[in-house]
Amino acid sequence: MQQTAITVTGLRKRYGSVVALDGMSFSAQPGRVTGFVGPNGAGKSTTMRVILGLDRVSAGEATVGDRPYRSLRDPLRRLGALLDAGALHPARSGRNHLLWLARCAGLPASRVDAVLDLVGLRSAARRRAGGYSLGMRQRLGIAAALLGDPPALLLDEPFNGMDPEGIVWLRGFLRAMAGQGRTVLVSSHLMGELEGTAEHVVVVGRGRVLADAPVAGLVAAESGDRVVLRTPAIDRAAAALTGAGGDVAVAGPDALVVTGLAAERVSALLAAAAVPVSQLAPHRATLEDAYLRLTREATQYRGAAGPATDATARPGEVRR
Ligand SMILES: Nc1ncnc2c1ncn2[C@@H]1O[C@H](COP(=O)(O)OP(=O)(O)OP(=O)(O)O)[C@@H](O)[C@H]1O
């Protein structure tokens, strides 16, 4: 399979006074799933449309392999894309939708049955696509992206509308695609799904890249040297730990997050001060923790403040 990176360099785009892309640059590499995440309005869909040559930019360029998508002679055999699962004729069956696409692209009808099997849609293939659930439409869109057996895939929110079984399937499917050496660029709002699926993540906000890093590295950096402990005596515990140089944040009625002291030292200090402890463990952050911190400044649309959670409590922040 020909290795085909998806690369965007210095993309800039405005819609009137709205800056949609503000120097967006990153590269999705072959052989791994790259998550593409960011708050609403961060520029993910615009970037994907630019990669597909559907939107123009005022500066920068996007390439598939080493060429712009529009200049590819056989685009479906180079990059498969799912932008909008609803983009189909509702009266046409799923199979006929794919046959029509295959015919337009000069691909054999045998590919249609092959991709229907790949996405598990064979039994529903002759039903009207207009009657499909959102999860089934996502599968049909993924099937369409696979028609040309391309070395690169670009999928906008493919987890959206999938039931738990579908999500498990899609996670394994994306990993398998990358395992075959394909480039897989996938946008999502579901950090938990990406943490188990993507090895690498590009976090964006306000039209630019905030982080471009391996998921494991982001999670490790976010976890830091923090210790989570539960105790019915948080005031005494906090006094003992701050007295020894720890940085203590309250993370719940009986929970503290301690920074700057190893778990063994925390345990010894609390034992010496006769503080009862019901739980003590090194804190393991999630991709969502890292995401929320990275995008805190870049989130444009936010609901009213809700209660803080343990996961988002940071050293020095006292939240009850
Ligand atoms: N056709 C358009 N006309 C005007 N503004 C647009 C248009 N498309 C996108 N925008 C604006 O450009 C910015 C980026 O939008 P985009 O849809 O790329 O973000 P996104 O990261 O995909 O968001 P979401 O997660 O909500 O899908 C937003 O401020 C959006 O309102």
TrEMBL record:
<dbReference type="GO" id="GO:0005524">
    <property type="term" value="F:ATP binding"/>
</dbReference>
<comment type="similarity">
    <text>Belongs to the ABC transporter superfamily.</text>
</comment>
<dbReference type="GO" id="GO:0016887">
    <property type="term" value="F:ATP hydrolysis activity"/>
</dbReference>
<feature type="domain" description="ABC transporter">
    <location>
        <begin position="6"/>
        <end position="231"/>
    </location>
</feature>
<keyword id="KW-0067">ATP-binding</keyword>
<dbReference type="InterPro" id="IPR003439">
    <property type="entry name" value="ABC_transporter-like_ATP-bd"/>
</dbReference>
<protein>
    <recommendedName>
        <fullName>ABC transporter domain-containing protein</fullName>
    </recommendedName>
</protein>
<dbReference type="InterPro" id="IPR027417">
    <property type="entry name" value="P-loop_NTPase"/>
</dbReference>
<keyword id="KW-0547">Nucleotide-binding</keyword>
<dbReference type="InterPro" id="IPR003593">
    <property type="entry name" value="AAA+_ATPase"/>
</dbReference>
<dbReference type="InterPro" id="IPR017871">
    <property type="entry name" value="ABC_transporter-like_CS"/>
</dbReference>
<dbReference type="Pfam" id="PF00005">
    <property type="entry name" value="ABC_tran"/>
</dbReference>
<keyword id="KW-0813">Transport</keyword>
